[in-house]
Specification:
Chain B: Belongs to the PCNA family. The complex is a heterodimer. Chain A is α/β, with parallel strands linked by helices. Chain A is built from 16 helices and 8 strands. Chain A folds into 2 domains: 211 residues, Rossmann fold (3-Layer(aba) Sandwich); 68 residues, Orthogonal Bundle (DNA polymerase, domain 1), CATH 1.10.150.20. In chain A, α3 runs parallel beside α6 and α4 runs antiparallel to α5. The longest helix of chain A is centred in the first third of the chain and has 27 residues. Chain B is 14% helix and 43% strand. Chain B is built from 4 helices and 19 strands. In chain B, the strands form 3 sheets. A 9-stranded antiparallel beta sheet of chain B has the order 6-2-3-4-19-18-17-11-15. Chain B is globular, with a radius of gyration of 20 Å. The chains are: A alpha/beta, B mainly beta. The interface between A and B is large, with 50 and 60 residues. β8 of chain A pairs antiparallel with β10 of chain B, so a sheet runs across the interface.
Chain lengths: 382, 264
């Protein structure tokens, strides 16, 4: 998943590009969220005991609905405006990676059967988590739920991360939230991790700024994409023996994959025969996404009746809890109208240099008043 | 080398009390002109700007501009140890990672030194442009604090509207509604009981009472408060600090829901 070893590479080589932020500080911000990743996490974590998961009366899994519902309310209550982006058709190059995942899942299913026979609880839990797959049904359930909650849903033409990044680049949203480092490679100006973690874990949100990443690594965006491909992405294999650190060194030295290929020792590093790095690069640079005009982001009031019908009647949620939660959404909606200071005042750059203090805010008439009060002060001793 | 001696030490105590609940950590900037601070609350809705001019100190020495990051809660803990009549001196050496607060009793028979660790704070500094406000209301600070407190027992938000008639504070909650109107009143005997309204244009804005109530913690600093309002700008609630400077609170207004122009 994502880019191998990139988090660590950035922590070591571009520490200034990473910031820990409080969950609350994203108040009032519009945030694009990679839905598929979140649903996958919910299926793994929410309400799981061994192989047992939350289900409705018909025995269908409802962990994803539970997770999506509570976490989204948490975002709304914090005054954020989430937009969920769902995956569309995967690009052809990713099919290889997907096939690998499929076979891993098949392996895990076998292992799970074996573990069930021996009755090893740890193994059962471990392997059953690995068999988790997000189905179309899960996606459709979540879309329905979100629409009822009044939260906008976007179905990306291809990769959700790419669509999220495009929304962020065009300024439609403030940041992209995902656990997948791909978002940076797609060029999302601001990328958040751990935003969707449960509040009980108390993990601060990690904020990455792509411009700072490039500045700190001293690379151009093209070079950064090449770096990510060398590290290992979803679209093609990486070169055996080249990890993140080596990749950074090579790109810094040679500037692009082409030059790296010309200069590295081919005996030592085996370049895969069929290595579609150019194609992968193109997918990162010009991914298939919807442009602004095709999208409309609107946050509406929740459909209380619809939610109760869907969650309580169809999926067996506790009706009191849902009614309370709907109240929460309504109050949160009221709260989200609070403006942020940044939409009025712009940050000035002189943060790190504590030299010049500017008195920007003094109005003429106030200055006059200040002078008057100054006149009274005569005792200055040096 | 930095050495600031403030005879009226209680002033610094009051300043801390008025901002420590709003802001956790902040950089204090010292220059030849004065001791200042600008910081936002964690949700970036409110901002506090403090200025204590050098002339207000009995002794002010600041060889070069420095910025000191402090945890306001810790600073407040230390300042609470100073007596109300104590003289407070703030000291810091060049390149040191600590700041010292020295408290001297008025009779000079007790001197206490409190040293506090400084911290690195990576905070954004906002540029606040000069603006002509549509309406400026000056009123007794106690009165303003009372109104905010009263209204917050009814609702969460306050609508402040200024018209020719006066300034109206209104709220709405589950149990009902409340309206308080203050009229222009300059005929009182004491100047600090007057309510003065300068209005160029009628203006009406909505704010979260939670923040307003937090601002009114600065009431002990000044008998008057100045509220400046413009329809496209955050409100400024200013308390003058006698002969020294000011503490100003900026608060972003609530925006109408169907306003699609809001920034992401």
């Amino acid at each position: 998943m994502g880019i191998k070893g990139l988090t660590k590479l950035l922590a070591d080589n571009a520490p200034k590009a990473l910031k820990e932020q409080k969950f609350e500080s994203y108040f009032g911000r519009k945030i694009a969220i990679d839905a598929s990743m979140s649903i996958y996490q919910f299926l793994i974590v929410v309400g799981r005991i061994g192989t047992e998961m939350l289900t409705n009366e018909a025995g269908e899994v409802t962990s994803h609905l539970q997770g999506m519902f509570t976490r989204t309310i948490r975002l709304l209550e914090a005054g954020m405006k989430p937009v969920y982006v769902f995956d569309g058709q995967p690009p052809d190059l990713k099919k290889q990676e997907l096939a690998k995942r499929y076979s891993r899942r098949a392996d895990a299913t076998e292992d799970l059967h074996a573990a069930l026979e021996t009755g090893n609880k740890e193994d059962i839990e471990k392997f059953s988590k690995r068999t988790v797959k997000v189905t179309k049904q899960h996606n459709d359930d979540c879309k329905k739920l979100l629409r009822l909650m009044g939260v906008p849903v976007i179905e990306a033409p291809s990769e959700a991360e790419a669509q999220c990044a495009a929304l962020c680049k065009s300024g439609q949203v403030y940041a992209v939230a995902s656990e997948d480092m791909d978002s940076l490679t797609f060029g999302a100006p601001i990328f958040l991790r751990h935003l969707m973690d449960p509040s009980s874990r108390k993990v601060p949100v990690m904020e990455f700024e792509v411009s700072k990443v490039l500045e700190e690594l001293n690379l151009t965006m093209e070079q950064f994409i090449d770096l990510c491909i060398l590290c290992g992405c979803d679209y093609c294999d990486s070169i055996r023996g080249i990890g993140a650190q080596t990749a950074l060194k090579l790109i810094r030295q040679h500037g692009s994959i082409e030059n790296v290929l010309e200069n590295i020792n081919k005996e030592r590093y085996q370049i895969p025969d069929d290595w579609p790095y150019q194609e992968a690069r193109r997918l990162f640079k010009e991914p298939l996404v919807f442009t602004d005009e095709q999208l409309e982001l609107k946050w509406a009031a929740p459909d209380e009746e619809g939610l109760i019908n869907f969650l309580v009647t169809e999926n067996g949620f506790n009706s009191d809890r849902i009614t309370k939660a709907v109240e929460k959404i309504k109050t949160a909606k009221n709260k989200s109208s609070q403006g942020r200071l940044e939409s009025f005042f712009k940050p000035v750059v002189s943060t790190s240099a504590p030299n010049k203090r500017k008195e920007m805010s003094v109005k003429p008439e106030k200055e006059a008043a200040n002078k008057k009060s100054k006149a009274g002060v005569g005792r200055k001793k040096k | 080398m930095l050495e600031l001696r403030l005879v009226q030490g209680s002033l610094l105590k009051k300043v801390m009390e008025s901002i420590k609940d709003l802001v956790n950590d902040a950089n204090f900037d010292c220059s030849a002109t004065g001791f200042s601070l600008q910081a936002m609350d964690s949700s970036h809705v409110a901002l506090v700007a403090l200025l204590l001019r050098s002339e207000g100190f009995e002794h002010y020495r600041c060889d070069r501009n420095i910025s000191m990051g402090m945890n306001l809660n810790n600073m407040s803990k230390m300042l609470k140890c100073a007596g109300n009549d104590d003289i407070i001196t703030i000291k810091a050496d060049d390149g040191s990672d600590t700041v010292t607060f020295m408290f001297e009793s008025p009779t000079q028979d007790k001197i206490a030194d409190f040293e506090m660790k400084l911290m690195d704070i990576d905070s954004e500094h906002l540029g606040i442009p000069e603006a002509e406000y549509h309406a400026i209301v000056r009123m007794p600070s106690g009165e303003f604090a009372r109104i905010c407190k009263d209204l917050s027992s009814i609702g969460d938000t306050v609508v402040i509207s200024v018209t020719k008639e006066g300034v109206k504070f209104s709220t709405r909650g589950d149990i009902g509604t409340a309206n308080v109107v203050c009229r222009q009143n300059t005929t009182v005997d004491k100047p600090d009981e007057a309510t003065i309204i300068e209005m160029n244009e009628p203006v009406s804005l909505t704010f979260a009472l939670r923040y307003m109530n937090s601002f009114t913690k600065a009431t002990p600093l000044s008998s008057m408060v100045t509220i400046s309002l413009s329809s496209e700008l955050p409100v400024v609630v200013e308390y003058k600090i006698a002969e020294m400077g000011y503490i100003r609170f900026y608060l972003a207004p609530k925006i109408e829901e169907d306003d699609e122009e809001t920034k992401p």
